[in-house]
Amino acid sequence: MKTLAYENVGPDPRGSTIRTLVDAALGDARLPIGTPAADAIYGLFLSEARQKGWDMAEKAWSEIDAETIRAIAQEFELMAWQGNRMDYPLPAGTEMIACIGGFVIVDAEQLGVDIDRPGLHHSADMPGRPGGSNLDLLMRIIEELSANLACRAIGMPELVVRLVDRHPEHHLQFPPFAPADNLVLQRSMDFSSSGLICSFDRSEIETIATGVVSDMSRLYASPHIFASRIRNARRAVEAMAAHLPDVHVRAMTLDISNQYSQGDILAAEFEAWDHAFRRGIVVHTIGQRFGWSAPLDVPGLDRADTVAAVHAKGAHGWVSGVARSILEAAPGGPAAALAELAEGFETNVVLATSTRPLKLRLFWRHGVIRVATRDGDGVEVTDEVLTLRRQAFPETVITALKGQPLHAVLDSPFRCGSRIEHAENKDGNVVVRIKPDPWLVNCENGQMWPDAPAKARRTGVPRTAKLPKKG
Q1: Distance between CA atoms of residues 256 and 263, nearest Å
Q2: Do residue 121 and residue 140 come from a single domain?
Q3: Tens-digit pLDDT profile for residues 11-59
Q4: Domain check: are 360 and 270 in the same one?
Q5: Residue where a domain terminates, one of 301, 327, 346
Q6: 208, CA 20 to 30 Å: which among 141, 194, 308, 346?
Q7: HEC profile for 364-382?
Q8: Contact predicate 124/103, CB 8 Å
Q9: Range of 363's domain?
Q10: What count of other Cβ atoms lies within 10 Å of the Cβ of residue 180?
Q11: Residue 368 domain-assigned?
Q12: 261: number of Cβ within 10 Å
């Protein structure tokens, strides 16, 4: 997944004097991940300059000495990797506080480090998919640790992405292991509570690798035990798939890493029409219900007729009214974001505001491109609900909102014409319900049009157009 149209926190010529001071104080010092400390600390100056103004930040930083700069670097390292949560005042007066691993919060900005890119990077510009040097390192260490062990017969894992509920999940997944009834061993590579893999140091990567090899050893030592635990679930999955067109059981997967509070995670993978109405893999998490044999119901598997009807109209799916307005407001238009969604399950569009970048997440769900965002100032937007937290409107205003376009109440960089169906003051917030207003969308040619014959013809998109075949 890519984040589109965000200007990274790179150097500015007006800060060249501060850059010289930071370089002189820190020299060749490195952060725990190996990137230059001076680049990261200069990134803190840039953050203060954006939020306090260049003149104020430059004046404050030019008045500190080398010892203070080294103290800032030490505090940054403690916060980013050791979780020291004490506030630390930066020279221009903003507070730096600890966040998840490899990240700090500087007033309104969440900034992190990336082993493959020097400096500090806004959270909106950090990779959402595990990869890069640290993933390569992890795979090498797994290979080295398992090289002379019998469990190496299971094979080596590969990184896969699976859409579960609304979010892509990333796993290291092994080949099916025949002695365990072709069970597929996997381990999550999403570390939401501890940071991103690109921000981990070598010791953290080694810990993950050791855990993966331990999982391999457990499965190899007792394959019959694992096979017996999933037998009833497998039968239920296969029985259900037998009655659905275009649906086939691909694998039964198990995460035995115990990194989840509920214990081992059993899931079924189906080859079917996925949330983006493409042939792909649909995942249903079964959890710990290894002993039951009740019929299995997996929502969304029976999509064949709906998918065929949408594709016959020349569309890949639908796009909600709010998501459509965001795509139209994206710098350069909707083409780049739709190209991402033509291949993946989600993308980010970042729009400029008067205070900070607004990160908007677009994702596929049941054939519809939807949106979910929270801007940090108490505004939450989805396809059907706008919530203005800690606000209240007079009842006369609330009543008058029905039937108005959303932009009448939402001051944002995207102008949404979807109509308001209902508004109310509720639990200390203003809650506005929005008419979904879905249109058809073709992600490859970038066109969006109403799902109605007459209007569709006016867009120049024939309703009987066929999707282009992949080469």
Answers
A1: 7
A2: no
A3: 455 568 999 999 999 999 999 999 999 999 999 999 999 889 999 999 9
A4: no
A5: 301
A6: 346
A7: EECCEEEEEEECCCCEEEE
A8: no
A9: 317-458
A10: 23
A11: yes
A12: 5
